[in-house]
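Blinded run. Sample ID left blank on purpose so nobody reads anything into the name before looking at the predicted structure. Input follows.
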Amino acid sequence: MQARKIKLTLQYNGSRFHGWAAQPGLPTIQGTIEEAFEKLCGQKVEVVGSSRTDAGVHALGQVAHAVLADCPIPTANLQKALNRLLPEDIAVAAVEEVSDSFDAVSDTRSKRYRYTIHNGSIRPVLEIHRCWHYPYPLDIEAMQHAAERLLGTRDFKSFASAGDQRLSSVRTVTLCRVQSDPPWITLDIAADGFLYNMVRNIVGTLVEIGRGRWRPEEIDWILEAKDRAAAGPIAPPGGLCLMEIFY
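Blinded prediction complete.
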């Protein structure tokens, strides 16, 4: 049977998982999907994801690829077959056969994330794992003014966690928008790539500006500092969702 490469579009609620990357003895998104493939194909299948989302982070548009060597299930039937085996908090939204040259990681052009904050006084118990409950006043206009200063090609080293080992911290942000529909606040951000914890560190900094700790224009100084200590605290993982990946 001829090997084929497939592209998977995945959705998941990351609340109970220890992130994307497979880890021995721990529930992860990658590990769970690979287990489903092994049941279907009778052999181990590596699933390579475009974004290695952290523990507690969600996705509506994660993309991955896998090479199937001797799997008897036709590509057209894989989506239903996998969804029957996967737990209720992971779903395969689409499956398509792609050329051998496709790579879910290196072919990525840009990604869009959304971060959700609940700004009401009472925590939203039914949505608590999919948002950051922040029950204090926030200046949305100031947060948006600060967000606009992040647009363009910048060195985002101040927003990268200390453990990020990438050679360059320069990224191009094409969208950074704060919107409010009380009690909900959303931050949408798109870029050609993200540093480790970059979105959550940006959100934490914008919240500090929203609560009045800094003025919006101080974003410029934070960027120039190229020092993680200059930015705000990291936002909790539950509010973050990977929305789209563009190729």
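Unblinding after everyone has recorded impressions. The longest strand covers residues 170-181.
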